[in-house]
Amino acid sequence: xxxxxxxxxxxxxxxxGVMAAPAIxxxxxxxxxxxxxxxxxxxxxxxxxxxxxRIYTTDERAAVxxxxxGQDQNLDNHLCVKQYKPNQGQDKHWGAPDxxxxxxxxxxxxxxxx
Length: 114
Prior knowledge:
Distance between the termini: 39 Å
Number of domains: 1
Shape: flat
Order of helices and strands: HEHHEE
Radius of gyration: 15 Å
Largest sheet: 3 strands, antiparallel
Low-confidence stretches: 6-27
Number of helices: 3
C-alpha cells in the first residue's frame, strides 16, 4: 500500500511540484475561507507538521510536502485538515502501529476576488 501511495505521490509531484512553490510565495492577505465540520483550518506549514511522518523516507517526505502545498489552489496559504484515529489491525498496513492518517484539501474560498 505504501509503495502505491509513494508512486501516486511521485507522479503528482511532477504535475504539482512546479506550481506548489509559487503558491506559498504568492499567498495574499485577505479573508480566509473556513472548513467544514470535523476539519481544522491550518496553514500549509501547520498541515505538513501535522502529518505522521514515520512511514516516509526523507525523499518521500519532501515529495509529500510538495503535494500538500499544491492543494492550496486559492493561494491563501491555508488548508482544511482532518486526522483519522488509528484502526487496530488496519493501521499495520501503513507500516507503523497506531499510524494516524491525515487528509488535507483546500479551503473553499467563496466570494474572494483574486
